[in-house]
Structure formats: C-alpha cells, structure tokens
Automatic annotation (TrEMBL), chains A, B:
Top-rank lineage group of the source organism: Bacteria
Family annotation (InterPro entries): ADH-like_C, ADH-like_N, ER, GroES-like_sf, NAD(P)-bd_dom_sf
Keyword rRNA-binding listed: no
Protein name: NADH oxidoreductase
Length: 345, 345
C-alpha cells in the first residue's frame, strides 16, 4: 500500500512542562492543540507505523497536553497516548516486521508520536495484535485504562480488605475496576458528583455509592467507612473531597493518588493520623508500574482482551468525533458523563 | 525502705482524646494538669515501682496531655512518659524482682502511671539498668529521644542518600541524629526558626542550616535541595514549612511526619508529584517501631548508654524544675530554645 507523504493531526502547542496548575477537565482545545498537516513519520528500526482507526481521549491525555504529565510535550508533534489501527510499515527489527498488516492496539508513550492523527508511531513492543472478537471501541482504549485497572486492583487484593473506596466512580476506569471487584467478591465504595449516576453504579454492583455534593455527604461517608473499614483509597480527584475521605478512613489506610481532577488545595486534615494511625499517602502511575512489572504486562493485556471479547468488560461510548471536527466538538463531548470519547481520523 | 502511702504528682485533667487540634507548644499548664496528692500505686506482677529522680518534658508528653497522642489519657493519673530513678518495689515476676534497688531509666507508656510524680510505675521490660557512667540528665531522657533518633536514622541509612533534611533542627532529638549522621559521613540539612540557632548547628556539623523565617528561605531551600538531593525528610513541624520542603524535594522523596508543632493546614502543594515523581508521605511513631522491632530495642538502648557515657551524645539542660514549682515555671522554661527541661520530684 502506498503511503501518503503528509497527514492531518492534532498538534501540541506547548513544549515541555507547565508551571501553571489547572484542573483535569479540558475547558477548551485552542490553548493546547492546533489542527495541522505534517509529514508522515518513518518508523525507527524497532517501531511500527499505524494507520489509526480510532483513538480515545483519556484523562491522562488532558493532563499531558496541558503539560502536567510525567513526560514532557514535544511542540508540533501529534498528541494521543493510545489507539487502534492497522500496521502499514515497520522497521527492520524481526518482531516489528512480524506485525505488518496486523490490527493492533498501541501505546505511543515512548515514541512521542501520538494517536490523534491519521498515522501514529509506536514501539513494536507497545503494539498488541488483537483477537478478532475485540471491537475497535474496546481495542482503542485497551492499554491505559485496562492495565491501570488491573494494576490498581492488584493493590487492593494485596491489602486483603474486601472493601475499598474510589473517587470519580462513574469513570470508565472505575467501571473496569468494579467489574474485577465483583468477580472476586470485593466491595467497592464509590463517590460521584451527580445523583443520576447513582442507579447505574448500583446496577454495576458497587457496595455503596455516595454523592459528594449531597448535604449529608460527610455523615454518610463516615457511616459507610465505619461499617466497611476500607484500607485502600484509589483517588482521581484530590482536593477537599479526597481530604475528607482520607481523614475518615481507619488505621493503616493508604491514599493512592492517580489523578488530579480538582485543583483546589489538597490538605492533610490530621497529620497526627500519619504518626499514630500509620496512614500513608502515595501515588500510582501506569508508566512506573509498567517499568517495575514488565513481565506482568503481557498476561494483563491478554486478560483484558478476553474480558472485552466475552463482554465482562465493555467500553461505554459517548461519542466518536471525526478528526476534522475535534477542535470544535471535543470539549462539549468530554463534559458529558459516563462514557468515553474517541477521535476517528 | 518503708514507702509512704501518698505522693505528690502532676495529674491529668482530661480523659481519652480531644477533638480540638492545638499546637505542639505548651501555652499553659492549667487546662491539662493539676498538682495533687494520690496514693502511691502498687506495682503489678511484672512491674516495678520507681522513686523518680528526674523526669523530662518531651514534645510527645505535650501532645499526650493535650489528648492528641496515639494513646488515651486516664483522668487523675500522673503524666510523664519517661524518667530515671531507683526501683523501690517490684511484682513477683523474677525479672521484675531482679531490678530491686537498681538505678534505671524507665518508660511508662504501657503502665499509664507517669513519671511527673514522686513515684512511677513501669513494666520491668521497660526499665533499663544504668551504667554508672551515665548522668541522671542523660538517663532521664534516654528512651524516647535516643531510640527515635536511632530508628529514624536507620531509615535514612536504608534509603542510601547521604543527604537528608529535618525541621526543628535545634531540638534535642535532631542534635542526637546529627551526631549519628556525622559519625557515618551523612549530610544533615536542618531548618530552624532563629538566626542565633545557626552557629550552634554549624558547630555540631550540619551540612546546611536554613532559617525558615528568612526572606529568601524558599530560594535558599531550593538551591540546597538541588545541590544535595536528599530523599528523606524527617518532619516535626508540618504546616506550610513542611509543604514547601516536600514540594522542593527530588523524585522518590519520602516525607516522614513524627511531630505536629505547627497547626496551620498541611497542604500537599503538588499532588502530581505523588503520581509522576513517586513521592510518598508517611509517619513515624516510636511505639509502633518498638512493637515492630522488639529485638532491636536492647541493642539500641545499649548503644545510647555508651554514647552518653563517652560524650558522643550529651543532653543540653535548660532547667531542672522542682515538682512543686512545675505548674508555675514549666511553660516559660519550655519556651526557651536549645535544651531540655526536667522535673525533679
């Protein structure tokens, strides 16, 4: 197949990191991205060039394009951390060549050539040949969220307590974790921001769902935490909500921050709990986990494919936005709750 | 020796815990303690009754009498976590009996019969027969601070980086840690609140001393941390000072809270550092360490006695206050910097 010399993409405006903190929501595209046409890149020896079919917008993408992720931006390069597509060219490395023509899920973190583009570059080692039974909508978001879900649920299992608590409970990531938890008899407690999200989460099988904006939230929170005694807190939000939850948790609790949706100050309400109750505060970053547990990536990805194939996991789709319309439509689509937004080049 | 039936003591006014946070300084005695006369207690089977020679006021005592320690107050009992004295009666347990007549350093945590009293009760296992070469002033404060110093410096050594940072650098505890650090070629960085404390700490051999109230404190802090790259932060203060230090520390830093001298809110300035820089926040409590590392207590105590005997360690004495004058004099003596205050029954 002859490749074009140029391609359309959403290109990064900023370079490196920012020092200006901002919330995890994408209030507008223009400060961070511009539509552009650039040369189709050539894959390096160990890389694959992928014609992108579908690419998701993950919360980590928003953090990245704003310059607040753990990896610097390269100005003028396409954004987008993962996607699904067909391998149309490869480097000379034998494993890379073995991927030619295959439909793959891919992650672009190492290559720095993103998926919000007609063509993307990924390390062959970050490309996963797909089972035919996996839909594009599931395959496009099959690395970041599913691996994060499996890795963080492992932390819950290692802790041993059946109950655990999560903020941003209606996110795709939390829904994946709720699925894992139900199968193994664990009891997820989740917080959401809207009453209308509560019935859906109860249907999914959470033990408790609390609306953080309810007038009696803190009282309800304390009652649930006293009854369930969760020791792990998986937190995508930070700020006053997370402070309140951590403060109400029992001895030996661990507050594990993996997102920063709220930019309000994050206060340790009672530092004495760190001393006398052995509570701890730490973070989770998938890239770090992948470096530390390389041998667990393959089995985790296979587990994810099986789950998406047999319907135990399923990606809720809010919208599929053509690349040409992304600048106009993305912020409004992302503001809708409960599902994932995709870009279709 | 015939024992009296009654004794003078400083008795706890509060019971259990408080919900009102307050600073680590003792602004007045009256809300927390009253002078009183109570029956001399009888030691239990595994306990010793000690005629107290000298008892220190530690920061943990202040936290305890205010009801903010990890152990509940018992109203009407004497306060005071440690001291030195002569064993004048024991229970029937053979080890307890072996202590009769001996001069011991003792800790009262488990017995709940404190040392700010003419007689105190301690578990025999918490009594340490003393070498004659150890002064009363060193022996009286030989458990809480020395064991905390040895245990926390172990954390520094395990981390491996030669540089580490401490708040409240002029405290007795920090001076003990500075002594340990110098012997093993480590580089302590400390913060203090007054310029006049700086020459003393430089003489003791710290790598850097910073005045937290200096106009250029944050700039100086960043310069020192960039140069030294400390990964361990031993913090007795919390609040804005500790927030600033943790935020400026390098990747993989650990903020270890062991005191709460400042009651201002403790903010995690950049929660993203927990995610992308693998920073962590935790606590240290000596009681917890002693439960976890029982077999290290004996050697640590012996090491402490040797250090005090040969002058490598020495307790700076601000004042020795007679028990009868403690209500009037203690707050003003405790407000003086650089040394330890003792009660003499």
């Amino acid at each position: 197949m002859a490749l074009p010399s140029e391609m359309k993409a959403l290109l990064l405006i900023g370079d490196g990191y920012t020092k200006t903190p901002s919330a995890g929501v994408l209030e507008a595209m223009e400060p961070y991205l511009r539509p552009g046409t650039i040369a189709v890149p050539a894959p390096g020896p160990t890389q694959a060039l992928i014609k992108v079919s579908l690419a998701p917008i993950n919360p980590s993408d928003i953090v990245f394009i704003k310059g607040q992720y753990g990896q610097p931006r390269v100005k003028g390069r396409p954004a987008g951390f993962e996607g699904v597509g067909i391998v149309v060219a490869t480097g000379d490395d034998p494993y890379a060549k073995s991927l030619a023509g295959k439909r793959v899920a891919f992650a672009t973190g190492v290559s720095n050539w993103g998926s919000w583009s007609e063509y993307a570059v990924a390390e062959a080692a970050s490309c996963i040949p797909l089972l035919d039974t996996v839909r594009d909508e599931d395959a496009a978001a099959m690395i970041v969220n599913p691996l994060t879900a499996l890795a963080m649920f492992d932390i819950v299992k290692q802790e041993g307590e059946k109950a655990f608590i999560m903020t941003a409970g209606a996110s795709q990531l939390c829904k994946l974790i709720i699925g894992l938890a139900n199968e193994e008899g664990f009891r997820p407690i989740v917080t959401v921001r809207r009453d209308e999200q509560m019935p859906l989460l109860k249907e999914l099988g959470v033990a408790h769902v609390l609306n953080e904006n309810a007038a009696d939230f803190e009282a309800a929170l304390r009652e649930v935490l006293n009854a369930e005694q969760p020791r792990i807190f998986l937190d995508a939000v930070t700020g006053p909500l997370a402070s309140a939850i951590f403060s109400a948790m029992p001895k030996r609790s661990r507050w594990i921050v993996y997102g920063r949706l709220d930019v309000e100050p994050t206060v340790i309400r009672e530092p004495g709990q760190l001393i006398f109750q052995h509570k701890r505060i730490e973070g989770f970053w998938l890239a770090e986990w992948m470096r530390a547990f390389r041998d667990r990536i393959g089995p985790a990805v296979l587990a994810a494919q099986k789950r998406f194939s047999d319907g135990r996991w399923s990606t809720d789709v809010t919208a599929v936005v053509p690349l040409d319309e992304a600048m106009v439509k993305l912020p409004a689509e992302l503001a809708k709750p409960n599902g994932k937004v995709f870009i279709k080049p």
